[in-house]
Amino acid sequence: MKINPRLLRFLLTLVLATPLANAQEPQTATPESPEVTWDQVRAVFQKRCFACHRGEQARGGLDLSSVAAIQAGATSGASVVPGKPEESLIYTLPAHLENPKMPPNGNRLPQRELDLIQQWILGGLSEKVLTPASTAMPTRQSAATRPLTRPLTPLLVKPANPATQPALTNTLTPTSDNSDSMDPLRTRPTPVFAKPIRHQKQMITAIATSPVSSLLAVSGHEHVLLYDWSDQSLRNRLEFPEGDVFSLRFSRNGSLLLVGGGKGSESGRVVAFDTTTGERVFETGDESDVVLAADLSPDGRFLALGGPSRVVRLYDTTDGRLISEYRRHTDWILQIAFSHDGLLLASADRFGTVCVSEGQTGQHFMTLRGHTAAVSGLAWTEDSATLFSASHDGSIRARNLHSGNETQQIQPDIGKILTFERDPVGRLVCGSASSKLIILAPNGSPLATASLQDEVSHLQITQDASHVIASDATGNLVIHSMETGAQVTTLDLPLPTTHAF
Ligand code: HEC
Prior knowledge:
The protein is an alpha+beta fold. It has a domain at about 30-130. Helix content is about 15%, strand content about 30%. The strands form seven sheets. Strands 1-2-3-4 form a four-stranded antiparallel sheet. Strands 5-6-7-8 form a four-stranded antiparallel sheet. Helix 2 (about 40-50) crosses helix 5 (about 110-120). The radius of gyration is 23 Å and the shape is elongated. The chain starts with a helix and ends in an 11-residue tail after the last strand.
């Protein structure tokens, strides 16, 4: 994963702005240092080791997913000696003090992470968990057998607790090594479509796919579930007591998930979650109605949001400051998208108007008219020169932002377009009120069509552009091939219920 240097700086600012942040990054491991808790160490293992050391198939017989499993040791014997890191293989192998070096063929772990492991061993293997969110993370197995029937951990509304900061530290570390190859999500070979686990439908109001991994976010009632779509395992549950979820968007590097929503005519908010740990990283917006659309600039610095209030608000995420608000829309704001270079910001409404503004100031740049009904999707080309918009009026329009001219108008002939995406090679995908899914070549000619069971309400292309994931009005979630349009599988996701089963 390549982290944009500006995002890195921004995240660093956040870490440094937290008074106790230094305590989370022990430079030297002394027994006097604050206690390192299990959730901190688990986050390291999760990122660096779980791909091979979790569950029954763990390599070397070493399961690192719980304190008990670690103490149970590996096939060859004990792998940890409490109080003695230098005699503990779970420290000496990743620190490259002994062979076989861990991860195999990987770089040595960043010093900060090694320090955490070392201190945790020195401290006697604390089982304490300071961040309730991380305990809600079910393992691959418990997702199937024990899907969160009990009330979940207390909600973290404002994590003032400095213990939540390691989440940030973790998102930073990948720059120091080639952690890409160690990310369990990315190293997994071709998707294996697991047998459906169970069947349960509920309204899906938003979905999002990560741009860098096989993570899929699906809205639920006052929460969001994070799945791995390639094997249908539940990865995390993010609580959103702020209300219903209407907008889901991953940051460009996949490290954050923006969740927007709220309570109708009452309040609206956007929360950014760390996709690895499930912790809240920041919260923005103090709307008097729900947030229907939100996006983060590519460098993570700016956040724009909008909804029924018809106002687009632009915030600085480093200090939460409101930079600009503009009232150029005459109807509900349904779509918001920053261009790939971050210079422009497009917002679109239920009336059909698309406004383009300067991404860092919110200053007016251009208004694009033409659609005669609600805009249901926006997509920028990679060079940020052209903006595509799709609408309930059944058309897709492409506008060149230098000339202001419409360069393409496509009528896919499937009726009301309810959802729309464009992939990096320029293919366009639409879902319609007539339950159709259509994949178009860049020139607008149809490549494939498919019929779903109900109105196609949301769709998202996967990070490798191999598949499109769509939800319909009944609550079905399906995966179709981008090549053929054919349905590959139904995602019968293990959605948590309120009653035991
Ligand atoms: C890509 C897969 C992979 C990753 C990632 C990985 N390991 Fe391993 N690990 C292995 C394999 C394979 C073995 C068995 C090696 C052997 O027996 O020679 C092993 C063995 C070990 C052992 C020795 C177990 C014993 O036999 O006593 C320890 C300790 C260990 N790993 C720790 C870690 C830690 C800590 C991490 C994360 C920082 C990690 N490993 C990441 C594959 C991996």
